[in-house]
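Q: I'm writing a short methods note and want an example of a predicted protein-small molecule complex. Could you take the sequence and the SMILES for fe (ii) ion and return the bound structure as tokens? Please keep the output block clean; save any remarks for afterwards.
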Amino acid sequence: MALAVDDIVARCRDALTEHTPALAVRDVLDEFLADPKALEGAIGPVDAGGITTLYNGSDLTVLHVAWTPGMALNPHEHRMWAVIGMYGGQEDNTFYRRVPGGLEPSGGRELPAGDVLVLGDDVVHSVANSRREFAVALHVYGGDFFTVERSEWAFGTFEEGPRDFERTRRLFDEANARWRSQA
Ligand SMILES: [Fe+2]
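A: Understood, no commentary inside the block.
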């Protein structure tokens, strides 16, 4: 039987019962990434950047995220573990350390298709898609991604403010419009 979104969510839910859920989710995503065509079949084709919620509960959130070519999302934290499994394109991560008055860049990690990245709950990162194709991934979080209070920071000034999903939505809209006008 073809892979379905329900199967993906069920496997992630099962992983929550393991001793180290983030690492168990990493193993689950490793398995799914071995067959990107099956994932594509379950998720459907991507023709615009955006965030799609596959599951959202108090202990787990599973998202499908497609970063539009040329898009960059400003630094933010999650305050819960996160596991990102890329199955198309590439996501460029920059990590930051908190310093008085803001942030300081502290390394990075390019995440090509087939790679899985585990982030601890105190990580601050920004992400960018510098390629001319969508960067598509499953993002799994160990909590309720949408209601937990957390911060984001402006590029450049690194001024801290509350996580602003409206702003993220606008970033996607602008990036999608720019990408469509170039296509
Ligand atoms: Fe993130």
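A: Remarks, as requested: The first helix runs from residue 5 to 15. The pocket of fe (ii) ion is lined by residues 76, 78, 125 (CB under 6 Å).
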